[in-house]
Amino acid sequence: MKVAIACDHAAFRLKEAIRAHLEEQGVSYRDFGIYDAGEKRDYPYASLYACRAIQSGECELGIVLCGTGVGVSMAANKMPGIRAACCGDSFSAQYTRAHNNANVLCMGERVIGEGLACQLVDLFLATPFEGGRHARRVAQIEALEKGELE
């Protein structure tokens, strides 16, 4: 599995902590920046770059970060095929994968600490989609995205 990771300028420190954690865990990733604490980037671009890697198949899952996690999640969810979830607790991080087949985890540096963020990353990456009755609902999300849900 390869993970796309990106952030805006409000979440550089959190991205760096998660990046180091992924390395410690032996998780393959692609860092879409920012790459320096002084660099500026608006949060829609963080979502754009990471989610394009998922759309193309280069990466299977993504982690996008901003100050609250809300902006990157809103931007990511505008992209076809992306199911992004803003999470700040372990239950949500686990069950958004298990029940919603989320492919992007969104978090905010101003909201959660590095330790919790790394725990959420571990849960998100380790939890498989359960399928079954949940597959029908994910298909409905996909139909909604295409304007086909009646």
Give the SSE map.
Elements: E1 2-7, H1 12-25, E2 28-31, H2 43-56, E3 61-66, H3 70-76, E4 84-86, H4 90-98, E5 104-108, H5 114-126, H6 133-145
Parallel strand pairs: 1-2, 1-3, 3-5, 4-5
Strand order, main sheet: write it out. 2-1-3-5-4
Total number of helices:
6
Approximately how much beta-strand content do the residues carry?
Answer: 15-25%
**Helix and strand run:** EHEHEHEHEHH
Radius of gyration: 14 Å
* Average of per-residue pLDDT values: 97
Estimate the helix proportion, in percent. Answer: 40-55%
Spans where pLDDT lies below 50 across 5 or more residues: none
Cα shape: globular
- Most strands sheet: 5 strands, parallel
- The overall strand count is 5
Question: Helix/strand-derived class?
Answer: alpha/beta
Distance between the termini: 35 Å
Short account of what is shown:
Helices cover 47% and strands 16% of the residues.
